[in-house]
């Protein structure tokens, strides 16, 4: 048997990824302001934020699902004693 995670899990992970992107954008904005002391160039901020978010998108993809699974879904646990379908099918 082939099991797939329900689509709602990935929709919820999308919201976690959005929160990670917002936190990164704020961090990049503050870091750019502190390091360059430039407040007049929106293109500098835009390029740093977009470049940083694009570079960190593989990490966001992975860790948004990990955060959702381990931190935001505390009642979901694996029970090996309930995993009997594979043992029956392999006979």
Helix content: 55-70%
The best one-word shape is elongated
What characterizes the major β-sheet? none
Structural class based on helices, strands and sheet pairing: mainly alpha
Give the low-pLDDT segments. none
Distance between the termini: 14 Å
DSSP, total strands: 0
Please compute the radius of gyration using only Cα atoms.
Answer: 20 Å
**Count, helices:** 4
How many distinct folded domains? Answer: 1
Strand content: under 5%
SSE succession: HHHH
Overall mean pLDDT stands at 85
Keywords:
91 residues, mainly alpha, 4 helices, elongated
Topology overview:
Elements: H1 7-36, H2 42-55, H3 57-70, H4 85-89
In short:
The protein has about 90 residues and is mainly alpha-helical. The protein has helices at about 5-35, 40-55, 55-70, 85-90.
């Amino acid at each position: 048997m082939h099991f797939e995670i329900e689509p709602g899990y990935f929709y919820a992970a999308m919201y976690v990824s959005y929160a990670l992107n917002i936190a990164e954008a704020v961090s990049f904005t503050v870091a750019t302001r502190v390091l360059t002391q430039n407040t007049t160039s929106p293109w500098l901020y835009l390029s740093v934020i977009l470049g940083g978010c694009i570079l960190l998108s593989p990490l966001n993809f992975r860790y948004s699902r990990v955060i959702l699974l381990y931190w935001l879904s505390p009642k979901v646990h694996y029970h090996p004693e309930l995993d009997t379908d594979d043992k029956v099918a392999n006979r």
